[in-house]
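not sure who needs this but someone in the group chat was asking about ABC transporter permease from Brochothrix thermosphacta so here u go. i didnt clean anything up, its just raw.
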Amino acid sequence: MTGNKYFNMIVLGLKEQLIYVRAMLFRQFLMVTIMIIFVNLWSVVYQGQTEINGHSYNQVIWYLLITEAFFMSRAPVAYKIADEIKNGTFAYTSSRPYSYALYHFFVSLGDSSFKLLTNFIVGAVLVMLLGIKLNISFLAILCFFLVMLIGYIIDYCLQFMIGTFSFIQEEISGYVFIYEKLLFIFGGIIFPLSILSNHVEQLFFLMPFVYVIGFPAQLLTQGLSELNILYLGLQLLYLMIFIISAKACYTSLRKKTMMNGG
């Protein structure tokens, strides 16, 4: 690989996805199946109603399209790091002339970007063919890409920290399972949190999980508002907290590896 090494890492993650064509086709089939279920489920919920707590049927469907496309495109960073720790390759890969954390970040970014793009395109074509459309401002689209990138970094940091648990505990699947369920419930993946009462919504938005993808999807479908600007400040705060925490976990892991002979 030539040129910028981190850009090449993104390309590496992209190439990995292009190899597995059958897996890609199965993922699109699953995406279509999930969206058909959501379209029919929420059409029953909205039967006889145009809005629920300020949310139209079209807004909810596009919100769910974004959250599902994102969740299905997440790279298994925690498992990759755990595998390297358990099989001993961590000592080798962490000594290479680049940042270990950034290596996994950029490779996973290339991996996830391709899956996210294909998931979204397939889902968007489906819902538009069903006549479900949504008017979105250009400014909202720009803000969405920004907050989605921040959300992706938060998710990466959390997965990175879970992966480092493998140094003290062999099996991390339980931690991954709990984290993903927290994303589903408190992260707003299966339903928009803002569709709930204001007090419950504010409680959920005090937790970090919604800032992974629930908040970006809400920003895109509902547009900019004073409340969303406040939530953006909280998202940036959590971003800094988890970057510092992930760095601390990695530093501690590296020291323990050196102490044990690497």
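also Residues 5-259 form one domain. if thats useful
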